[in-house]
Amino acid sequence: MNDSRLAPGSRVAIAGASGLIGSALARSLTADGHEVVRLVRRPPRGPGEVRWDPAQRRIDAAGLAGCAAVVNLAGAGIASRPWTDAYKERIRLSRVDGTVTLAEAVAALDTPPRVFVNGSAIGFYGDTGDRAVDESAPPGDGFLPGVCVEWEEATEPAREAGVRTVLARTGLVVARGGGAWGKLFPLFRAGLGGRLGDGRQYWSFIALHDEVAALRHLLDTGTLSGPVNLTAPEPRTNREVTEAMGRVLHRPTLFTAPAPLLRLALGEMSGDILGSQRVLPARLLDSGFAFAFPGIDDALRAALG
To answer: For residues 192 and 42, what is the distance between their CA atoms, to the nearest angstrom?
Structure first.
C-alpha cells in the first residue's frame, strides 16, 4: 500500500467535523481542494455526509468507500460537565465506541484508506510533575489515562488490516473559539485571570494552527504510525502561561484559584486541572515537522489574530 502524500482532490472522512479541531481541519482540507466527508448522527443532507451511530456501533460503511484517509476526532467534552459517574462513562464510551465503529468499518472495506488518524490525548501520561515525557513513556494512573489506553486500543482492527494507524495525542489547544482557552480568554480580558493552585504545574499546549498543520502532516507522512504527541516543543507552567496571558492581553493577573477551592468546586476533574503534564513532541519533531507558533506568546497572539 502506497502511503505517500494525499493526492490532489483526495476524499477524507472526518468524525467530529463540527468540533473545534475537526472544523478547522475540514476547512484546511477543503481549501486545498480535497473532498471532506463529514460523519453525522442525523439523516445526511447531501453527498458530503455519512450517517453513523457510534453508541450502537453502526455506520454506513459504503459512504467511506474511496476515502484516502479517515480521521476520528469525536468524543464528549472532557470539561463540559462535572465528572459524575454517568458522565465519566459517557466520556469513555464516546471515544471507545466511536473508534471501534470506525476501525472495524475501515478494516472491512475492499479498498481501505491509506491512513487512519485517531484522536487521543496527552491525558495518557497522567500527572508527570516536572518530568518531561515523550511517546516512549508508559500510561499514567487514573481515569483519563485509563480512557486513553482503551481509546487507543480500539484502533486495533484497522492496524491489523494493514492500515497505517496514527494515535494523535493532543495537548491543550490554544484557540479563541473553544476548548480550555475559549473559557480562559474572556476571564483574562475582564482582568479576572490568574494562576490555578500554586501555578507550578506544566501545561503542554499547541496553537490551533499548528494542531491542524500537524494533523495534515500525519496524513501525509507515510512513515508515521502509532502514538504521536501534538504539543508545542516548549511546555510552560501555569504561572508562566498566566504571565503570558497578562502580557498579550495587557491585563492584570492578580487572581488566584486556590487548590482546595478548585477541588471542592470541580471534584475529581480538579486533578486534571491541577495536575502537571510536561509532554514533548519527539516523534513529530523527528519527522521534520516545523511549528509556526512554538512559544506560548506566539500561540496566544495567533489565537487572537
So the answer is: 40
User: Can you list the residues of the chain whose pLDDT is less than 70?
Assistant: 1-4, 258-273
pLDDT digits (tens, 9 = 90+) for 239-262: 999 999 999 999 999 888 766 655
Could you tell me the maximum CA-CA distance found in the chain, to the nearest angstrom? Answer: 59
Question: For the segment 154-207, what is each residue's pLDDT rounded down to a tens digit?
Answer: 999 999 999 999 999 999 999 998 888 888 899 899 998 889 888 999 999 999
- Give dist(CA 304, CA 295) in Å, integer: 14
Handedness of CA 39, 43, 47, 53 (dihedral sign): positive
d(CA 87, CA 77): 10
- Asked if 31 and 19 count as a contact pair (C-beta separation under 8 A), the reply is no
CA distance 1 to 16: 27
Domains of the chain: 11-241+243-304 (3.40.50.720)
Going by C-beta distance under 8 Å and a sequence separation of 6 or more, which residues neighbour residue 273?
A: 196, 262, 266
CA distance linking residue 57 with residue 164, whole number of Å: 22
Rg (CA), the chain: 19
